[in-house]
Design a protein that fits this description.
Strand order of the largest sheet: 1-2
Helix content: 55-70%
Number of strands: 2
Radius of gyration: 19 Å
Number of helices: 11
Shape: globular
Length: 255
């Protein structure tokens, strides 16, 4: 791929996803080449609270140790981060970067709190899974393909990834925590207010709109239930420019 093509691809990544993706590449590589001390990047309660190393909750989100044993998993996580964060930012959050950033901040804060209790020193895995979970809930009936040609609905994908990591890596706790946090956001933002008629507990702070204002031409009706969960005639009665553009299933791990 030519240098100009790479530049065009990178500039084409949505704003919030581009920042998250960039940090998740630069910081691990800087630690890999000795420019940063990995022990200063992980999340530990004692260092944050008693020594005021307040950067750790942020660096723990971006940092991932790159070794011959973890390199493939790291690349898979980058793929999921880019793909599903981009799909959310250009889907239900299209034209509303502040709302999408608020979702990421909410999930991140929840994971930091869990990390202080668990402890959970690296936040990349659960953060990516929390975003993937939200996309899967908003596209529950989309058919996705996994390795070995298996196909299933998107709503099962997070659990397939948990099982896959348990089998391949003997892990899975981080993914489970990501699912819990993703479900908490989805429940409070979408399911509880709409399916149960409850109050909206989550609201994007106005300061985020100041720095990340809404753009014209985004998907209308933010906060409404996905089209697949609403009456068919309601979605079709809307003008063409007002209908939802939900993500489609895609092949995972294939060519």
């Amino acid at each position: 791929m030519a240098q100009s093509d790479i530049g065009d691809w990178y500039r084409g990544i949505p704003q919030i996803t581009r920042g998250w993706f960039t940090g998740s590449v630069v910081i691990p590589l800087a630690a890999k080449f000795g420019l940063l001390n990995p022990m200063w990047l992980i999340l530990t309660f004692q260092q944050v609270v008693y020594r005021f190393q307040i950067w750790r909750p942020v660096t723990a989100l971006f940092y991932y140790p790159i070794t011959p044993m973890t390199g493939f998993h790291y690349l898979i996580q980058l793929y999921f981060l880019y793909n599903y964060s981009r799909r959310l930012e250009t889907g239900v959050f299209d034209g509303r970067p502040a709302d999408y950033l608020f979702m990421l901040i909410f999930n991140w804060i929840c994971l930091v709190i869990i990390g202080f209790i668990a402890p959970l020193m690296l936040l990349m895995d659960p953060m990516v899974l929390s975003v993937l979970y939200v996309w899967c809930q908003l596209n529950r009936d989309a058919i996705v393909q996994f390795w070995f040609g298996t196909q299933f609905k998107a709503m099962y994908l997070p659990w397939v990834l948990v099982a896959f990591n348990m089998i391949i890596r003997g892990a899975g706790l981080s993914e489970l925590l990501g699912i819990i946090v993703g479900h908490l956001y989805f429940f409070l933002m979408f399911k509880y207010p709409q399916d149960f008629g409850g109050r909206a507990f989550l609201r994007t702070p106005e300061i985020l709109y100041k720095y990340f204002p809404n753009r014209q031409g985004g998907v209308s009706g933010f906060g409404m239930a996905p089209a697949s969960r609403r009456p068919r005639e309601e979605n079709h009665d809307q003008p063409a420019g007002m209908r939802y553009r939900w993500g489609q299933g895609q092949q995972l791990g294939g060519q």
